[in-house]
Amino acid sequence: MGYYDDHMRPRRHNKGWLMPSLVGLVLGAILVLLALPILAQANLLPYDIAQEEESNNQVDQNESDTEGSNKTVNVEVNTQITDIVDNVSNAVVGVVNIKQQSMFGDNNNQQDGVGSGVIYKVSDGDAFVVTNYHVIQNADDVEIALSQEKQVAAEVIGGDVYTDLAVIRMDAEHAEQVAELGSSENLRVGEPVIAIGNPLGLQFAGSVTQGIISGKDRVIPQDFSGDGQPDWQSEVIQTDAAINPGNSGGALVNLDGQLIGINSMKYASANLEGLGFAIPIDIARPIIADLEEDGTLTRSYMGVSIFSLTDVAQYHWENTLNLPNDVESGVVVERVERMTPAAQAGLEQYDVIVQMNDQEITNVLELRQFLFNQSNPGDEVTIEYYRNGELQQTTITLVAQE
What we know:
With 402 residues, this protein is α+β, with helices and mostly antiparallel strands.
């Protein structure tokens, strides 16, 4: 190679030796590279060189794994979710509905269904379990399943069809854990939750699913009589955590490990997925306390059989009830029981109730919710109603439903 400037020309050299030297160097380097792995594997290289070769091979392998689709990642399985499950799962038990059947003159106990329940309290040698009313409905006996192999006797203290809640009592020696009650008031849509229960019975006992709060303050109509008309409206939490048959009565838990809902129902349809519901714990808490103490809920009672005006044929609106044309909703009194508040207030068959205190009453559901949620036994309530086409008013003193 020559150097140039304004005053000098490049010097000429003999280049005949250059090409063979370069070829020799290249061939030597290739031979060394090919020999290094063999020498390293045979431990014939100095330690430092072998370590460097191994390190380089590891880097190359990591880069290859990163670029490929089969990258392997090792992590420690110790998360908040697993900790919560460890702290709560043993408070969730199976609830077995048992029916007595008579065969050939002998009475046999048959398992009629399995749901879930949550141990929420231990006191004076008893453990108290909350579950859904429909889990223990029409049961002759109830047992608590602590595992697939172990079931213990239990007693139903009380239940309520409208709120779909029931309380069961068993011996406290069988309670391994007690769930901590949280609050559902400040739940946020999108907040992570965990559902724990026994889908499809004890075969899958203690199953855990994870999801989020999909909606708050959902109102779901309930038809208890099977006539296609809503008898009640349940206020529930909506979640996409999987809730399946057998999960009923199980726990809906927040990431603090607190019980925030009692899993209750789901909508099943080919067009729907991830639509489960739970009773908010703030609604359930006072009902649980009443059931635990009295075995029933104390609700206001009038003493009438009723149905919604919209369930009556239009012909009877004018010809039987003699209603004005502008009356389009209300509650028709079908029957008045003797010696009840309604009888004492002067209500009669075919009266059409349209208002209680300052609240308009358009159907049976609204009247029932007024009695159960907005009044107490002993309250005096002003009722407006139509009789023979005339708007009238009376005052009724409610009593406790027995």
